[in-house]
Amino acid sequence: MDISTSVDTHHEPHAHDEAHEHHELGFWRKYIFSTDHKVIGIQYGLCGLSFLFLGFCLMMLMRWQLAYPGQALPVIGKWLPQIFGPGSMPDGKMTPDFYNSLGAMHGTIMIFAGVVPLAFAAFGNFVVPLQIGAPDMTFPKVNAASFWAFGVGGVIMLISFFVPGGPAKSGWTSYTPLADIADTGPGHNPVFNGQTLWLIGFIFLITSSLLGAINFITTIIQLRAKGLTWMRLPFFVWAQFVTAFLLVLAFPPLEAAIIMQLMDRVAHTSFFLPVGLVVNGVPAYISGGGSPLLWQHLFWFLGHPEVYVLILPAFGIVAEILANNSRKPLWGYKSLVFSVLVIGFLSFIVWAHHMWMTGMGSAVSAFFQTTTLLISIPSVIILSAFFISLWGGSIRFTVPMLFATAFLPMFGIGGLTGIPLAFNSADLYLHDTYYIIAHFHYIVAPGTIFGLFAGIYYWFPKATGRKMNDFWGKVHFWPTLICMNAIFLPMFLQGMVGMHRRWYDGGQGWTLANAHTVWGLTGFEWNKPISWAAWIMGLAQIPFIINFFWSIRHGEKVNDNPWEATTLEWTAPSPPPHGNFLTPSVAYRGPYEYSLPGRERDFTMQNEPVEPAERTRRKAPEELVPA
Amino acid sequence: MEIPYTVSNRPDTGLWNAKIGIWLFLASEVMLFGGLFSAYIFLRIDSPPGMWPHGLLNVPVGTMNTAILIMSSVTVVLAWASLKMRRYRAYWWYMLATISCGIIFLTVKLAYEWPQKFDHFGVYIKTEALGKYEQYLGNEYAAEKGLPPRLEITGHLHNRAAQKDPNIKEYEVALDPLNADPTNPAMDRPHFWPRPATEKIATIEKEDVQYATMFEPRHSAYFASYFTITGLHGLHVLGGVLVFIYMWLPVSKRLYQRNPEHLANRVEVCGLFWHFVDLVWIFVFPLFYLL
Amino acid sequence: MVGAILLAFTGITVALSYVHFGTQKANIAVAMLVATLKAGLVAAIFMHLAAEKRLIYRILIFTGFFVLGMFWLILFAWYDYPIFR
To answer: Is the Cβ–Cβ distance between A451 and A318 less than 8 Å?
Structure first.
């Protein structure tokens, strides 16, 4: 994708004679094909939220099968086969293939079409240029291109639901050789089948992330306002910076692997197919010579940095909200920055902890066990710094603060339950069980997604000039928190009792799942309460959806800085105009100057000049940001 | 407000925006081709003796293509230098040279090399039937000399219909020199100049065949990686050529007249991409053609 | 001119490929050495890397570290897998 092509010379903001011109753009250029980072951010946000909702619905369908295996889904079970084809749910009863499809697409959509676009692209696009005092991203057209690549990729993923054979069903991890041979043969189109469309859609999603990440890094390096040094950046910007680096360097090997899997499926190569492969009892007529493990290595080379891509933006959002709602600076800013850089670096060399069961030798697995344990240290530092930041603060529980404080113990549980998995000996038992599902969902669901909800409630006033309704925000929060725990806490127990992932019947036919009871129920029996908690949680999202859309027009109008925050985005009008700031921003101080002694207000914005009196009375402004 | 540092340097980094952008993009491309090269490495070290072919690609043509790409790298640097010296006419000619080199590279690859491969046929013989075709394989001779075993008979397929028609029970192959005369010491190692298929015909029974295809991606891990890597590389060459064409058309003259430094920067950025493409080829050429 | 040097090196690469340095591994090593030299010239001179700013170096060093790490770590694990040959 070329960064510097410009067919339309009107909107080159950098041409020297354009400074005073501001063309009125038509509807399409203003709202649909916009190059303004705020519009693009909102586009990503709305699409990301929609995909999150879709992924959630897929999960709710799966939960029916797990709780009541083989039974017809009431009411909607009749018309689902109309949508997804007769192979999905004949008579409302889920087929194993459809269950697998739901599982694979739930994972893929949630991660790559939901959380990454929302956490990284939406929040990053909207907030980062505002927080660094920039008029836009460095490459606005590339930004638009990245959104539309995401759009195309998302649409292809959606189309895959409606092709003969159904969507991809080989797991979101698409392990070969199964993924190579799935969705082929009679009844399947050579190109328009679920798995191949998944691969093609994925290429677009990857391209979108790559372009976006390049934009972010360049913007943060080049467009920081005057006086905004690296150590005065809000932690959110640091988090997005590291996330962008992870995307730039980790995604391409997966893209290479996807191209190879595409070649395997379409050109009948054997990149991942070993000699002697037998399919359906017949030796496959292939050249062989490939290696299924090559796919796993290349996949997880991205896969691990990907999970840090999922969490780091949430760390950033939570940091901002905690500081703002405890009215004191973040504790340990330097440690936070250092930790996030170390996490970024280490995340590239831990990937094989997803592959403990593949038979690596002891030397290599010792290496990966060590790096995996090492990477837990900066994560703990970050979480601890957040907890300590609350100490002694004047905490006010606004809706964003509710989600941000809930994030802390939830992420704590998720992270700590990961520690046993760093040991290949413990993982031998826990791999592919519900323990793993609980572990990563605790991090992403009551972890990242709570961070994202917090961010939406927090920055909604900046984007619209209105606040979301507080009461309904709390109605959204409490059931969601309780249900998240009701869903995922028992899963740890299910996993430890031996229940495996990706079982179509929810463990009904498996001895281990029915042999032992834990907290009164067998592994299989726990599926019911978990499913009910999931469906109730679905209901709890309805207030949020209504609140979100209703508040755009009818929410309480607020001024430019309703949360009384210190960072630069709150100096811009709400919503910010094209070009963001009315006057160029200058930063004189750190990002979290709350509760400075001797001042009437309990917050001082970043662009407030430092008075000489202030300087002599205490340390220089730079040092006011605690080390 | 305009976006700063699109042409001028930001003081603390000393760079303008697109420079950082393109290097980040190239970093991601390094990882992309790195992923593909890692596939090449691991599939090659996994291949049993005799299963990784040598000497199947046309070395003189590959060498010429390498030279063409290197030339185009030179001309794009000269084009950029001309722009910096504000000599538009010279820039235009150098850019034309670059584009032409790129197009020649692609034509040679897509209109000559690849179709030549698709026309060539290879049959892997089943292990139990190797003795039967000893006259074409010369495995005893190879074992004596410490050469890797020969498991494949290659050449031109005369009865094309045999590939699709299950009723035809054998392949008629006009043998390559190695299979026509396997015990000739001149055949031990690949030659620089490609040797055409001979007139000697061999008949190979389908039941002795492990796997038979033309030289396509599906033929072996070698050709799979070859076609994938050169294919992706070719797509990058094509992309570069298209962008260069855009920078060479009259629309670029307008940008030159308005802000020549901006055009120079754009050419520099695209030139960087082009050099990277050349760089990848510098590694692809020995790995596939020579080793 | 650098271009001429590169062309000469290409010729050397081809010629060297017909010299036998003992094992196949040694052949590959020699060819890769020459290729790296050529690539280095392209990078340093054509891509002007020799005169580039620190930031670009940092980006590339991290990239190089990670891509080599990817190769090496997979390689270390590779020979432990007897099954998938």
So the answer is: yes
DSSP characters over A286-348: S-----HHHHHHHHHHHHHHHHHHHHHHHHHHHHHHHHHHHTSPPTTHHHHHHHHHHHHHHGG
Backbone angles phi, psi at B45, to 5 degrees: -70, -20
Q: Minimal Cα distance from A140: which residue of B?
A: B3
Please give the structure tokens belonging to residue B220: 């072996």
Per the prediction, chain A carries an average pLDDT of: 90
Give CA–CA dist B223/B229, Å, rounded.
10
Pair of tokens at residue A329: 């600076």
Q: What is the 3-state secondary structure (H, E, C) of A396-441?
A: CCCHHHHHHHHHHHHHHHHHHCCHHHHCHHHHHHHCCEHHHHHHHH
Cα B22 from Cα C39, distance rounded (Å): 18
**A294 contacts in chain C (CB < 8 Å):** 74
Alpha-carbon span A485 to A412, nearest angstrom: 13
Confidence at B228, pLDDT banded by 50, 70, 90: very high
Backbone angles phi, psi at A556, to 5 degrees: -65, 125
Region of A156 on the Ramachandran plot (φ > 0 left; ψ -120 to 50 alpha; else beta) = alpha
Chain segment A19-31, per-residue pLDDT in tens: 444 567 788 877 8
- pLDDT for the residue A614: 65
Task: Please give the Cα distance from A568 to A260 (Å, whole number).
Answer: 45
d(CA B213, CA A226): 64
Under CATH, domain B17-118+220-290 is a member of which superfamily?
A: Cytochrome c oxidase, subunit III, four-helix bundle (1.20.120.80)
Handedness of CA B234, B235, B238, B244 (dihedral sign): negative
Digit-coded pLDDT (tens) for C2-31: 777 777 777 777 777 777 777 777 888 888
Per-residue pLDDT, A59: 96
3-class secondary-structure state, position B172 = strand
Structure tokens at B144: 């004596």
Q: Which residues pair with A522 in a beta bridge?
A: A517
Cα angle A133, A136, A137; round to 5: 110
Helix pair angle (B88-107, B221-248), 10° resolution:
160
Burial group, residue A451, by CB count within 10 angstroms (0-12, 13-18, 19+): buried
pLDDT of A283-305, one tens digit each?
988 888 899 999 999 999 999 99
What is the 3 state secondary structure string of A476-504?
HHHHHHHHHHHHHHHHHHHHHHCCECCCC
> Which of C55, C62, C77 lies at the smallest CB-CB distance from A364?
C77
**What per-residue confidence (pLDDT) applies to B183?**
86
Beta strand segments in A567-624, E? none
Q: How far apart are CA B125 and CA B140, in angstroms?
A: 16
Answer yes or no: are the C-beta atoms of A295 and A314 closer than 8 Å.
no
Q: Where are the domains of chain B?
A: 17-118+220-290, 121-214
CA angle A116, A221, A313 (to 5 degrees): 25
Nearest residue on chain C to A297, judged by CA atoms? C74
Question: Closest residue of C to B148, CA-based?
Answer: C24
Give the pLDDT mean for B23-45: 93
Contact criterion met (CB < 8 Å) for A16 and B259: yes
Q: Of A31 and A213, which is predicted with more confidence?
A: A213
Rounded distance, CA B104 to CA B68, Å?
A: 8
Cα–Cα distance, C18 to B189 (Å, whole number): 9
Q: Which of A443, A143, A160 minimizes the C-alpha distance to A310?
A: A443
Do C17 and B73 make contact, defined as CB atoms within 8 angstroms?
A: no
The shortest CB-CB distance from A290 to any of B18, B221, B251 is to: B221
Residue type, C41: L
Select from A248, A249, A289 the Cβ nearest to the Cβ of B221.
A289
